[in-house]
Amino acid sequence: MLPELGPLNDWETLCHRCGLCCFEKTVDRRGRFVTSCVPCRHLDIVSRSCRVYSKRLEVGEGCVQLTSELVRDADWLPDSCAYRQALNNLVVEGRSGGEG
Ligand code: SF4
After folding, report:
1. Percent of the chain at pLDDT above 70?
2. Closest CA to 66 of 26, 12, 17
């Protein structure tokens, strides 16, 4: 079971807007995802923000809502992603929090 992460707005403030999730991915020979230098056509590469953020799930680019459940399984997100790091930290804290 995943730890509680609070309201969606709190969750979204975790993002440090690196924009790496908005670049196409390739898969290397070992099956690992590699971030390419090709951005989504809706990404402003200077500000690293999505130009259609409020409609991103509807524009047909395959954008997904990053929930904690999705992030847990999203090996295509970079290790540096703030969501992955926050989730990993919560899991580590949960493990050291005395359940065992
Ligand atoms: S990779 Fe993670 S931290 Fe970077 S912009 Fe995407 S969601 Fe935000």
Report:
1. 86
2. 12
